[in-house]
Design goal:
The N terminus is likely disordered. The strands form nine sheets. Strands 6, 7, 8, 9, 10 and 15 form a six-stranded antiparallel beta sheet that branches. Strands 1-32-31-30 form a four-stranded antiparallel beta sheet, with no helix packed on it. A four-stranded antiparallel beta sheet has the order 2-3-4-5, with no helix packed on it. The chain is an alpha+beta fold. Helix 4 packs across helix 5. It is about 25% helix and about 25% strand.
Amino acid sequence: MIARWLKASIFAAIAIVAALQLHIVTGNVFSFASDTVTFAVWFVVVEALALLASVAYERRRGGSQAQIDASLLGVGIAVGPLFKYLVAPFLYEPFRSLRVYVYFFGVYGALSLLSSLGARRRLVLRPYVGVLLAASATLALVANPSGFQGAYPQWIRAAKNAVWVGADTLPMAMAPVFNQTFDQPIAVRRDPGDPTGLVVAERGGRIKALTTGALPEAPATVLLDLSVEVGELGEERGLSNVVFHPRFAGGEPYIYVMYTAKKGAGSSNRLSRFETAREAGALRILRASESVLIDQDDRDQLHNGGGMAFGPDGFLYVGVGDEGGYNDPFGNAQRLDGGLFSGILRLDVDRRGEPVSRPPARQPAQGRTEGYFVPNDNPFVDVPGALGEFWAIGLRNPFRLAFDAQGRLWTADVGQNNFEEIDLVEKGDNLGWSYREGPAPNNDSRFKGTAPAPLQGRAKEPVYFYRHSGATVCVIGGFVYEGAARPSLVGRYLYADLAGEVYALSYEGGAVSGVELIAIAPTPGLGIAGLFPVDDEVYLTLLGGADGGATGRIMRLVPRGTAGALAVDVNRKVSIEEKYATFCSRCHGVNGRPVAATGGTTPRDFSDAAWSKGADDERLMRVIQEGGAAVGLSAEMPPWKGVLTDEETSAMIVRIRRFAAP
């Protein structure tokens, strides 16, 4: 009787734990949603086939090996989640997809050895077992190409961070550059004319000047204020980047600024040049000198690009998004004859003229350009009807880009539902959006996952990608570190995720040879907006809250243990107001009232009292945790179940309803 009860309990436990192994394949966060059942069925079928094959094959041999196989496969199901939760998060493996095979073969092999020793029988590993394991691992890899990179439950992430910090295994930490805080700092640059001068751009439209190393620390002074032009910071609007002319100290005292400017009920994506001057050695930006190079009308608030860098050829490279919306509803991706959207532009801002460059042949649709020429060797300059400014196309939202010492152009393209990607961009590349997202066909696009024919440019796969989820919010591109202060980072591409993690990617022989997590933001929920080379240092901008409060910080990467480095506070509970400000306000507005879009999907207006009264808490809970697509709404609403606990989701619902309170 006891034996039967014990067996029933074991099999029940195995069945329950098998369902939890959804994470091994999908990389999704902890949930008992319907997709859990789907995976559980798949996994149990695979294991059942293995058991049946084992029994059928070994019955003629007396059953000893079949008994071992049966017990091992059963125990393997139960041990899998332990490996997933308690081992995999702490591994630093450069080839992360191999973790799938490590799991299937490593766990099985270890248990086989232990069981054979315990049973005092000779270990026999049958070829069919290897085939089944390889097939299962391959299916898992196909379902989740990034291997074990998925999100973990919040308590696992906290435990992971605590162990890393406590064991002193993360090589880098963050230290504040200034004691003062900023209102959503978005970019930071060294003043080329002042070795101690620093320029900080805030998303709201202000550019400030500071001095590094000064004691006592002087408050920042405002160099330029575009806040009136920018207007309300709904969704992804605002100032996104600033760069100095490469010959700034040699007679070209210009600074270039990318920002969104309000225009009636909509906005435009603007690239402007400003002249600068010096007063008593201090930098000034002359507001009246603004020359608008690009003024591109934009029907949506999302995907405004923001990447900007001068190349070794002296031309300005500019990353532009697809105008926003879900699956490129305006049809800008894969187009060269519309507006300046969805790619990387290459501009001669010095207007050198022939034989180097020429004036643009035409104006973009719903836009205006002036003040630059188009290089004659741009890849599409002679394509009939095409805008010659394009250097590469097929990007969704290239928010950051940078050149390395070899002249290679790196960019990070923010994904939609599935993948975040990093690209090495060359002349005439087509990076695939929107017929592809990351490495996979985008079957929801108007191209149905198939490249258009004829294809403009040369199809190019991403260098690296990782799965997009609620806990990996969006990729933030950085640069290849080539300084002397951090030898361990030399030659590696540094990038981050908005959620607060910093990575170093090694690229050798035309392929990624390793990706390492090197640092975590000291306070979760503040959002990394960029990584910038300043002298030999790596500076980071942490947005802080989006509620108008100055809680953003300028940080620098330092070796762990450096004086002044901040510990990762995994125990600090980020307020629900901070989480709303960081992750929700960009779409739903600071006050719960998004600016209405004339195209794409308009986010929910939380200040609508009628909607709030009729909205059901249970449905809101599901939308927040599982994403809009789970309930038939826009898939642009991502699942936040990896970021918010059930308790925090309930608090978020209360926060949302407060916007409609009288």
